[in-house]
Here is the input.
Amino acid sequence: MINVSFLGGASTVTGSKTLIEYNGLRILIDCGLFQGNKEVRKLNWEPLSVLPSTIDFVILTHGHLDHCGWLPRFVNQGFKGKIFCTSPTKQIANLILLDSAKIQEEEAARANKEKYSKHNPAQPLYTIKDAKDVFPLFRVVDKDLDVKIEDDIYFKFIYSSHIIGACSIELKIDDKILFFSGDVGQFDDVLLYPPIKPIKADYIFLESTYGDRLHPDKDVMFELEMIINQTIKNNGNVIIPSFAVERAQTVMYLLWQLKLQKRIPEIQYIIDTPMGINVLDVFNQNSKWHKLDPQQCEQMCKMFTMVSSYKETIETIYNKNPKVVIAASGMVTGGRVLSYLERYIEKPENTVMLVGYQAEGTRGRKLLDGALEIKMYGKYYNVKAKIVLVEGLSAHADQLDLINWLNKLEEPPKKIYLVHGELDAAKTLKSKIKEVYGFDSEVALLNQKVVFL
Here is the structure.
């Protein structure tokens, strides 16, 4: 029997963790952090239903926080096995885990100093030391290579786009194939190649982030051009909360193209995310994973002012000249973008440009839903800046792409489990899969267990 337990990333887009148990062996697909509202985040403090020390392997689809961000806690609680990933994923995960730990330590210290936390004292979920303890456990595996775990268990990484290094996972157990999509990227991504589709699978675990919608058929560069030009005309600033991995680089590339075409003004363009700046090195070191050549990357970077220190952040914030700033985090859950919003969110001439998925309960979702005020560091701020969404920049496949991702299957799978999506999105995708293919699919629920005979 193969036992599968959905320990995260089920009926939600965060906290991805799927446990596979077979013949005494335990494999965890992803080990993500829960993000969003308080009730969801509280899950990060709860123990897994199995002891981490009893899990043999972790296989990571990619390095985003909602897929690898619980690893420091996991290792701290006793996991000592191998963590398999691609080379770019290892590099990205190192950056993301250190950044996450640093932010958590800083926010706990600030909460204790300003006494706005209900906990006394406030504690970080994990520390920088905990994050560093993860790194020796990484084992790099190239894509398209069969890796033997046991005599009758193999896995293979298959390119999935989404972010650099991201892959689906084909897991062969005895005579069955379990296929984990991970996060699937768009087929016409600016920087990445199209995702590779599965050909054969008995059971598919498919993400459903945008399972209920299509990305708008709009010219993204035109949208960026109009938003920037109108804001600068009003003597305002454009603040772009951005995921440091992939999204920041995609926005940089598009702005660079607009600048080359003289469609946006000669002002200061700033990237204020140390991790996002470091990710540029990952791009340079892994050229086979993306479309940009080193010369293009170098030319693109020359356009931007790279801000690394927090002192430079403060100087940038108080610079009265109109500017465009890309700063993490993408869902406005933390990071330096909060420092910009503290000063700019209450001024109507400014624009906050959202460029990615905003999970339920995040500040980004609240802004998107029209919140009149948002809370940052224990204080409420009136939302007077213009809030806009450029949806076409998402790193996730939309409903049409997800449906097309299934069209190379030689035989119908026994079942498709829909994961990594809010409930409505997953239910809508389930209906669409039935309509198009007639495949049997099911919306996975948190802590649900299924058995394959």
Q: What stands out?
A: The chain has two domains: 2-213+395-452, 220-393. The chain has a mean pLDDT of 94.
